[in-house]
Amino acid sequence: MILELRGVHKHYGGVPVLHGVDLAGHGGQVLAVVGANGAGKSTLIRILAGAQPMSAGEMWMDGERVELRSPHDAHARGIRTVYQELTLVPELSVTENLLMGDLPRRRSGLIDWPAAHARSRELLEDIGFAGIDPRTPAGRLSVARQQMVEIAKALAGDPRVLVLDEPSAVLAGADLEALFALVRRLCERGVLVVYVSHRLAEVLELATSITVIKDGRVIGTTEPASTSEADLIGMMAGRRLEQIYPGRRGEPGGTALQVTGLSRAGEFDDVSFTLREGEIVGLFGLVGSGRSELARCVFGAEPATAGQTRVAGGRGGFRSPGQAIAAGLALVTEDRKRSGLVLGMSVLDNITLATPRAARRGPLIDAGRRTQIVGTMVERLDIRPPACATMPAVQLSGGNQQKVVLAKWLLAEPRVLILDEPTRGVDMATRVEIYRMIDGLARQGLGVLLISSDLTEVLGATDRVLVMNQGRITGEVRSEQATEEQLLTYAIGRAA
Amino acid sequence: MTGQLTEPAPPAARARAGRLPRLMVGGRDVTVQAGFVTLIVVLVATAALTSDAFLTQANLTNLLKQMVTTGLLAFGMLVVILTGGIDLSVGSVVAFSGIVTAGLAGGMPIAAAMAVGVLCGIGFGLVNGTLIARFALAPFVVTLAALTTVRGLAFVYSEVPIAPEDPAFFTLGSALAGPLPVSTLIMLAVFLVGGVFLTRTPAGRAIVAIGGNAETVRLAGINVRAHVILAYTVSGACAGLAGVILASRVGIAQPSVGVAFELDAIAACVIGGASLAGGRGSVRATFGGVLVLVLINNLLNLYGVQSFWQQVLKGLIIIAVILVQRTNRVRA
Prior knowledge:
The complex is a heterodimer of chains A (about 500) and B (about 325).
Chain A: E1 3-12, E2 15-25, E3 30-34, H1 41-49, E4 56-61, E5 64-66, H2 71-76, E6 79-82, H3 94-98, H4 113-126, H5 143-156, E7 161-165, H6 173-188, E8 192-196, H7 200-206, E9 209-214, E10 217-222, H8 229-237, E11 255-264, E12 268-276, E13 280-284, H9 291-298, E14 306-311, H10 321-326, E15 329-332, H11 336-340, H12 347-351, E16 360-361, E17 364-365, H13 367-380, H14 398-411, E18 416-420, H15 428-443, E19 447-452, H16 455-460, E20 464-469, E21 472-478, H17 484-492
Parallel strand pairs in A: 3-8, 3-9, 6-7, 7-8, 13-19, 13-20, 15-18, 18-19
Antiparallel strand pairs in A: 1-2, 1-4, 4-5, 9-10, 11-12, 11-14, 16-17, 20-21
Chain B: H1 11-18, E1 24-25, E2 28-29, H2 31-50, H3 57-82, H4 90-104, H5 110-134, H6 139-157, H7 168-174, E3 176-177, E4 180-181, H8 182-200, H9 202-219, H10 224-250, H11 261-271, H12 283-302, H13 307-331
Antiparallel strand pairs in B: 1-2, 3-4
């Protein structure tokens, strides 16, 4: 047994996160750990990586009890971790990122750049990620490529245990295939791969053993051959799939949003679609297909090079988000930390950011009314903890942060709501709440555009789905009749 | 509530949360305030116990007047720092608005001349803000250029100091209202109104939010550029007012006055816990920072410490204060 965890407990400041997790694996295994967000996966990873000490429990390697006090300890034991969040220095070249602290030198003490680049090229080719120029600054690579460099960096340490945290979140198509091939090759070499993901299809394809955790406990360990996606979802969520998405809505009303021939050079081209009142339309596409760019442009955050956006027959062609908001548009962006929240400011400030006039008395903000308005929102969306109004947004959990962003836009009473990956990094319970809320809004007559790369979600929560591929809309399907394969075929642009 | 408390915040978030003050009174945190009150009480007590001159009316009045320049500049600086920027030009603006006011004092009513002085500050602030917001230039570079340009303009306007003869020129800087100098009251009013502006108006909240995350603010439909320009204009106005009051108090306007004033203003904000990255800072704590700086200056003067040593000590004290704040935060 290369690695064994026994009865691992972890609590943060009195809040228990892990309640006695057991996990064991030997070389050549792919140990998948699945669970909804908030189940404790991230904490488990941090413990394996030496980034967090466990509160109680034991870790054994090769029959010897070990204690990891730092990531350095973990490295020394041969454990390498690739986090979901990228840790590359964007200004430095791929080579410098890969060989950081270990760059080859000439006798004069200066760095031997040709040798360094050659070595990093070799590293990348060796693991099947050829085609990345080692001289490129890491920040200029696509997110998928950066992820590959992260993996190469971990492998440069020649690990015995490789922990991958949601590695497929940003990879798709051929890149994903390359990753799978790599994982299989590592197994043949006797490496233990701990693969943390909530994409069940790939877990079923790749893993030799699957451990489901929920609320900090191991619910069960099984093998791919003896389980199914539906079984796993049931174990993860504690409920069945049909209960996750609300039922279908009735026939939609009149036009809510009309986009005609919208183009933005280098990002998307000649996009036209209509969104009707009371309708939820999904927008599916792989990373880099232009979905988020389209949303930002519709919202007036970036200028279009051609085409028109109109809300319910009113004015079109928004030149700023302010104009779009005034016309009844709202955009929940993909990255709430970078563009959805002011993390250091209070929940109060964040929720009222887009509606500064909501609680005015003369030139001043009416503090009492503002607290009341925000209190109503906190209650309506069940934001936890309930007394969060004066807390900085950074202290809330991911799901609750997302609710704060939603509350901000609901306060603006939009007629069209654009949601870009609203459930990314959000726990299953909150996901269900978000689906119900979107459904409720649509039933009140809002038009909702739901951008998502989660196939189950984009089909389950919508009425219609548009598929984007390389900046163009390549397909449109009715959600009830479509299959995931169909969406992928449109998204990849050739028969799958 | 499933799983919501169980997902721990990312390391960065935890570090930031860990910095939160712990001293709570009536549900409000008063750690920063309590720290300042202690520091200021200690400084005042030390001064009163070790120097006979400190508690004299002459010294106290003088101290209150000396606060005005640093105070006004620090408030303007805080507004800019909150947006994530910096204004290095304020010392030069002090000199320019002072010398223009003095130069015009012979030819027009004093009040009008002073208004022109303040307007000059507003004008420089507008230019700084516009260059930074409209053309996306770095605040450090733009205001560094303004620092030298405006200083040059002050000397172009008059190479020699100007001392107006009209006694009305001295009123603003030297008049007393009861025991308090009028100029000090003006500065206090700026802090009071400024505090309300930053905490209770949409524009003030937008300025703080821009320093925290400008992209979020832009996507919330708020005109980020206009608010950034507003912040630099406020700083310019404060510097213009400070220049006019300083010239009036000294009775003579010099084109060379105000060198390195921007550093005291930045120091006051930083001592008050403002983050140079923007988004964090408090009007009250900045006022505390001003008090600390001015008290230290006054003390060292009373002790007769040589002015170069004063600079050395002041620098060390600033580091000490910031280190204490830092340790407090980390220990939480």
